Amino acid sequence: MGIISSSIARKVAMALSGLFLVLFLGQHFTINLTSTFSPETFNEISHFMGTNFLVQAILQPVLIFGVIFHFVMGFILEIRNRSARKINYVRYDGNANSTWVSRNMIYSGVAILAFLGLHFYDFWFPEIVHKYIESNPADATRYYGELVEKFESPVRTGLYVLAFVFLALHLFHGFASSFQSVGFNNKYATALKKFAKFYAIAIPAGFVFIALFHHFNH
Amino acid sequence: MKLTLKIWRQENAKTKGAMKTYQIDGIDGDMSFLEMLDVLNEDLINKGEIPVEFDHDCREGICGSCSLQINGEPHGPDRLVTTCQLHMRKFNDGDTIVIEPFRATAFPVVTDLIVDRSSFDRIQQAGGYISVNTSGNTVDANAIPIKKENADDAFYAATCIGCGACVAACKNASAMLFTSAKVSQFALLPQGEIEATERVENMVRQMDLEGFGNCTNTGACEIECPKGISLENIARMNREYLSAVSKG
C-alpha cells in the first residue's frame, strides 16, 4: 500500500497542498493590492511575474500542479467518504456538533473551481495567447489597463465577489484544520488557528475590496 | 410523558429496513432511554409483536455496548453520556423521537438497531496492545517513572469505550478518533515505545481496510464522544504515523 493511499497520508497531502495555495493567495493578494494605489508598481510586478524565467518555468507549473492535486485529491476523498456511509440517516443533526463550512468543503471547493475557470478565461488564457501564441512584443504597461477593463462589468464583479465569499468559507475551515492534519497541536496551535481564521476572512475581503474598488472607480 | 417513536426496523442484515412509528405513554422523566425502550418492548410483547432489538450491557456508561442515533445524534442530545445514561427528562411530553442504528459501511446492521462493530475489534487486534511477559516475572508498571502529563493524557485516551459514536457522528463515518485514542494510550507511555512504528501503521491500515472514511476535522466526533476523547489524539496519531512512515 503506497503512502498516498492511506487515509492519513491523503489528509496530510490535502493539508500541505492547501497550505501552499494559502501562501500563494497571500502573494497574489499583495500584488493585486498595489493596483489600488500605484498602477505603476502593479505593472512593474506583473511584468516581472509574467516574464521572469523562474516564475514562468518553475513556480507557475508547481502552482498549477498544486491546484490540480488539491482538487483531484478533494474529489477522491469525497467519493471515499460517501462510500463509508452508503445508507444515510433519516435524521442527521450536523449543526449540533460541527459547523456548516466544515461539513461542506466540497461545495465551497467546487464553487472555487468554477471561479478558477472564469479567472483563467479572464486573465490566464489571454495572457498565454498574448505572449506565446500571438508572440506580441513585451509591454510593461498593459497589465493595469487589462485588470481595470475586466471589472467594468457589474456581472463579472458580482461573480468575483461571490467567489471570494466561497473562498472565505473554504479557508475558514481549511486553513486552521490543516495544522491539525499535519499533527501540529501544541501550545502555539490555538494562536495559529486564530491567525488562520483571521487570514481566511481578511484575504478574501481584501480581494472583494480590490474588485469593488476598480468597478466603482472606473 | 406521551411520545411518538420512529424506529428503524430491519429483520436481518439481508432484508431491507424501514422506519416504523410507535406511540408510547406513561414514560417517566427519571427513566433512562433504554428503560423507555424496555417499556415499549413490554408493550410489543404483550401485543404479540416482535420487540425492538438494541444493544446494551452494563447500563452504567462504561461498557460501550449501547449505541443508537437519537434525533440525529449518537447517544442523543445530552453531552458526555451514553444512551443508557440519557434520561427521558431531556425530552418533552408529545415529542417525536427518531431512533436509528449507527450508520457506517464498516458497521453493518445486524437487526433493527444493532450494528456489527467488530471492525473496531479488528483495528485493536492490528496493534492496540503491548507485548508484556506475563509468565510470572512481570515488572510492576508503577516501577517505571512516567511524566505526569503523559500519564494523564494516556489515561484520558484509554477511557475510550469503543462505542462507535465518533463514527456515527462523523459525516465521513471516520474512525480516526477511536483509532487515535487506542494509538495514543500506548504512544504516550514507555511500555508502548517498542512497537510504536508497527502499531500505528498496522492500525491505520486496518482502519482503512474496514472502509471507514477520512477525517476532515469537523470535530463532530469529539463533541459527541460520551467520554470526551480529545481531537488532540488525532493530531498525535498523525504525528506518530508520519514518524513511522519516515522511519520506513
Features:
heterodimer, A: 218 residues, mainly alpha, 8 helices, 78% helix, B: Ubiquitin-like (UB roll), 2 domains, five-stranded mixed beta sheet, two-stranded antiparallel ribbon, 11% strand, membrane (chain A), SQR/QFR_C/D (chain A), transmembrane (chain A)
- Can you tell me the residue ranges of chain A where pLDDT is under 50 for at least 5 consecutive residues? none
Largest sheet of chain A: none
- The sequence of SSEs of chain A as H and E is HHHHHHHH
- The CATH architecture classification of the largest domain in chain B is Orthogonal Bundle
Sheet with most strands: strand arrangement of chain B = 2-1-5-3-4
Summarize the structure.
The complex is a heterodimer of chains A (218) and B (248). Chain A is mainly α.
Explain what you see.
With 218 residues, chain A is mainly α. Helix content of chain A is 78%, strand content 0%. Chain A is built from eight helices and no strands. In chain A, helix 1 (7-34) crosses helix 8 (189-217), helix 5 (105-133) crosses helix 7 and helix 7 runs antiparallel to helix 8 (189-217). Chain A is globular. With 248 residues, chain B is an alpha+beta fold. Chain B has two domains: 3-111, Roll (Ubiquitin-like (UB roll)); 117-247, Alpha-helical ferredoxin (Fumarate Reductase Iron-sulfur Protein, Chain B, domain 2, Orthogonal Bundle), CATH 1.10.1060.10. Chain B has a five-stranded mixed β-sheet. In chain B, strands 6-7 form a two-stranded antiparallel sheet. The longest helix of chain B is centred in the last third of the chain and has 16 residues, at 232-247. The relative contact order of chain B is 0.14. The mean pLDDT of chain B is 96. The A-B interface holds A 1, 3, 5-12, 77, 80-81, 83-94, 96-99, 102-103, 105, 173, 177, 180-185 and B 6, 8, 19, 69, 71-73, 77, 98, 100, 103-106, 169, 171-174, 176, 204-205, 207-208, 211-220, 223-224, 231-232, 234-239, 241-242, 245.
